[in-house]
Amino acid sequence: MQGTVNQRTDAGTQRGLRGWLGRQFGRTPMIGWLAGALVAVVLEQQVGDPLSELLGLPKIPVLFGFNVALKKPLLIPSALAFELLIYALPIWLVARVASPVMNRVSGILYRLPRWVSPAVHLAVLYAALHIWADLSAYRGITLRLMLIAVMLTLSLNLINGYMGEFSCSHPGFMALGAYTTSVFTVGLFMNDKLFGPALLPAAAGPWLFPAALLLGGAVAAVGALVVAIPSFRTRGDYLAIISLAFLFIVKSLIENLEFVGGPRGMSKQPNWATLPVVFLWTVACLWTINNFVRSTMGKALNAVRDDELAANAMTVNTRKTKMMGFLFAAFWAGVAGGLFAHVLRYVNPGTFGLQKLAEVLAMVYFGGLNSVYGSIVGAVSISLLGEALRALEILKWIIIPLLLILVMIFRPTGLIAFTEFNVRDVLRPKTGPDGEV
């Protein structure tokens, strides 16, 4: 009897907490949260230096205070105060106070042509990210690598989540894209000891860079045929072994090709993978993959995952479905690899080994299978967590695996699994004309 009473009390507490959170935050549309983030980063840009000096911090915390707190625990109260005054409080105030105005703005955008609302939201998001990254070169490269991680996670989730296979070949696709794009840009536009003098003027390079990325994605997609064709007859562990063998083949092949630097790698990639370029390619990847999984082909992928024999009996062309899934995923992994090479401006075969595979798999399974939401959450969480714990050195590789183990025990399919990403639902106003949620 006492246990029943306690259970009812806990349930009532949960409902009360959920209701309070709903009253505080449930009425704010997405444009309101983005506006709050933009206000916060502008505030940091204007008063970050004097505030950090006032709080006794050596400089503005580059990654939400984690690095400061882990290196100098005595500065934890100062770091928390900085993040509270710069980020938490302004975002909450904008979201709470400006909620009615933002709902009216969101309603106006919602009634305009379908592309207007996403474009406005993306513009505000990019403005916030640009200002945040502009305060530190470390933030800039971290943000670009995080966006590339989102692309990789989304593309791998197509195979491991929506198709239900277990592929280990993604770093190989990434390597093909990285080297193909690097050969294109370095060979044509840079004076290099491997390729000789530039063949085209460097000024034309940024305009042809998208073509280089598309070529890198196309080469990765062709390489995916090596994995896709055996997938017609194998599944599970056998396909995982084939895809892992493909990864080793690509890595060994690049190590033995002297015209691309062999094990020494390639350098001198031009600095064309700027934040706006990476952001636009990430948006394009998100848009195309989300449309793909919501299309008839995406539903066919789910049918193959659930029961391939039944899907074949229901006239689903399982071979074509698998082929399209592998080629599409490999293409975006190749594009991500090309951007990755030009963000770091150096690439070598060792980058695309088992550690990169483990990193991408962790992002997919941490965020959630069969979910665009989950891919974004997994990539952002693992990327930021890895950078935030960098100060702990070897302990970082103990904490992150333990966190993954806990997620796999309590949420085997990931944090946000099997959730459809509907852009219109995300961007719509949160209250109607009468003010009701």
Give a quick set of tags describing it.
ABC transporter involved in vitamin B12 uptake, BtuC; two-stranded antiparallel sheet; 437 residues; mainly alpha; 1% strand; disordered C terminus
The rough form would be described as globular
Determine and state the CATH class of the largest domain.
Answer: Mainly Alpha
What's the helix count?
18
Rounded mean pLDDT score: 85
Q: Into how many domains do the coordinates divide?
A: 2
Rg result = 24 Å
Describe the structure.
The structure is a single chain. The chain is 72% helix and 1% strand. With 437 residues, it is mainly alpha-helical.
Offer a concise description of the structure.
The protein is mostly helical and 437 residues long. The chain contains 18 helices and two strands.
Write the layout of secondary structure elements.
Layout: H1 2-25, H2 30-54, H3 66-71, H4 76-97, H5 99-111, H6 116-134, H7 137-162, H8 170-189, H9 205-228, H10 236-255, E1 266-267, H11 275-294, H12 296-306, H13 308-313, H14 318-344, E2 346-347, H15 354-367, H16 372-388, H17 396-410, H18 423-427
Antiparallel strand pairs: 1-2
